[in-house]
Amino acid sequence: MYMTVQETATFLSMPEEQVNRYVLEGRIRAVHDGEQYIINTSQFEAHFQQLEQAKLALEEWRTMPIPEDVDIKDED
């Protein structure tokens, strides 16, 4: 599915100027159709999957219980 820069900015929740800059830098692949850049949204699927995996890993780490037997020497 192709979207305009404005639609992509809304989709990614970032400013339109930043999406334009990323397109010009080559960080977001886009095609110029003569009037505007159009962006294939399938390139973001891997990014969103990685974000979801990172969120799950962080939540798993946060819910991991602290070990009962902590071997720490108190030097006070």
Query: How much of the residues is beta strand, in percent?
Result: 5-15%
Can you tell me the number of structural domains?
Answer: 1
Tell how many strands the DSSP assignment holds: 3
Q: Gyration radius, to the nearest Å?
A: 21 Å
Q: What is the C-level CATH assignment?
A: Alpha Beta
Strand order of the largest sheet: 1-3-2
Could you name the CATH topology? Answer: Molybdopterin biosynthesis moea protein, domain 2
What is the straight-line distance between the termini?
64 Å
Shape: elongated
* Poorly predicted parts: none
* Order of helical and strand elements: EHHEEH
Structural class: mainly alpha
The helical percent reads 40-55%
User: What value does the average pLDDT take?
Assistant: 89
CATH architecture tag: Alpha-Beta Complex
Total number of helices: 3
Largest sheet geometry:
3 strands, antiparallel
